[in-house]
Amino acid sequence: MSRTDRGSRVIAAPAETVYRALLDREALESWLPPDGMRGRIERWDPRPGGGFRMVLTYLDPTDSPGKTSGATDVVQVAFAALVPGERVVQRAEFASDDPAYAGTMTMTWDLTRVGAGTTEVTVTATDVPPGIDRAAHAATAYAVLAMGKSPRALAAT
Q: Is residue 68's pLDDT more than 80?
């Protein structure tokens, strides 16, 4: 049975700015990694059919073993659809031998203008692998939606 996780938040930024942040390599490296991890994008091709490869490294892997190695998660992300100012659709696959992380998870970022300079961002993750903890996934989605782990993330785009 497939699992869907969803979250939304209103951000004090125009939809076009949020869209650019979702396609900005440095911004993604800054705010996409979950708390307790750092991210590095190794391959970057921001166009429909393109994508990126992100290596997520646990700052302290003692209590959180990686999916790919003892200290890392590697995820291949393809851009399935890009609609400027409205939507980004990503298909993500974790590099892991563990079947609990197998499959392709689709992340859809919908941007809805709700006022002058404000945007509701809704992220919907479908076909979430069962190995991804629901509570941790929700907490990460909320932090990402805040896009505030680095105030520079939106200001720089």
A: no
